[in-house]
């Protein structure tokens, strides 16, 4: 097998490792590309290509994350990961761990960890790497990696997200949610939301996004039920789609350009969190990005028109 073939076979795994460490599609893709350049430029073939490439992409991702931390601390408003529509790495034996670990809730919990803790946690808990492989990847002893994992687990356990296991039930709830959203059915929305539901958005200061989270079933239902019908009146449409392994949708303007994503956290038959990402810098990998400000202006004009 040629170098190119070996690398392409492992690319889905490499991207999935990098994305979970970085929470960024674009940065993960760059890390994978840099991994290829190092592999291609190596004069010798490693004993285990998988181990070599996994270690390389992990080290690159750790370095990128360290510099990204500064930018995230200065970020305007809530910060969410770049939306991921499909995890390219598939492993039926670890399907549940893979799906849960890529959710926005889980990735936000990972932000609490140091870069080394995060890398160790991802490699061990998500991808079941051996401690010898992890030690090589992060440049620490096996004993040190075990300690890093203990600390990471301690940080993660308190807020670990637990979603509905039945995918069909989640999707049915999401279908009812989007039907009620389309109809502007405030009561219908209220019945689907947890009492302490949170609506929060990441606009990065670049879109007319909510300044802070809206909390409570009544407030969230009323805001969604009154705001979204106006979007549909100016020809905004949505495509139901899993976002980071959770039920969600992608919203487009009349020209088919991406405006934002919406993802739902579901637990105990109710929607716990509604997360939107409208920062255009985080949507480019989904397709051409629309002008949210133009849509907002059009809605304001429509509201001023007499019925």
Overview of this protein structure:
There is one protein chain. This protein is of the alpha+beta class and 307 residues long. The protein has two domains: 3-159, PhyR, sigma-like (SL) domain (Butyryl-CoA Dehydrogenase, subunit A, domain 3, Up-down Bundle); 167-304, Nuclear Transport Factor 2, Chain: A (Roll), CATH 3.10.450. It is 55% helix and 13% strand. It contains twelve helices and six strands. It has helices spanning 3-22, 25-41, 49-73, 95-101, 104-110, 115-126, 131-138, 142-159, 167-183, 186-192, 217-233, 292-304; strands at 193-202, 214-215, 237-240, 248-252, 258-267, 270-277. A six-stranded mixed beta sheet has the order 2-1-6-5-4-3. It is elongated and about 75 Å long. It starts with a helix and ends with a helix. The model has no long low-confidence stretch (mean pLDDT 92).
Known CATH architecture of the largest domain = Up-down Bundle
Assess the beta-strand content as a share of residues.
5-15%
Radius of gyration: 21 Å
Give the overall shape: elongated
Helix content: 40-55%
Strand order of the largest sheet: 2-1-6-5-4-3
CATH topology category name of the largest domain: Butyryl-CoA Dehydrogenase, subunit A, domain 3
Order of helices and strands: HHHHHHHHHHEEHEEEEH
Q: In CATH, what is the homologous superfamily of the largest domain?
A: PhyR, sigma-like (SL) domain
Q: Which regions have little confidence, pLDDT < 50, spanning 5+ residues?
A: none
User: What is the total domain count?
Assistant: 2
- Biggest sheet statistics: 6 strands, mixed
Cα separation of the termini:
68 Å
What would you call the quaternary organization? single chain
Average predicted confidence as pLDDT: 92
Number of strands: 6
Q: Helix/strand/pairing class, anyone?
A: alpha+beta
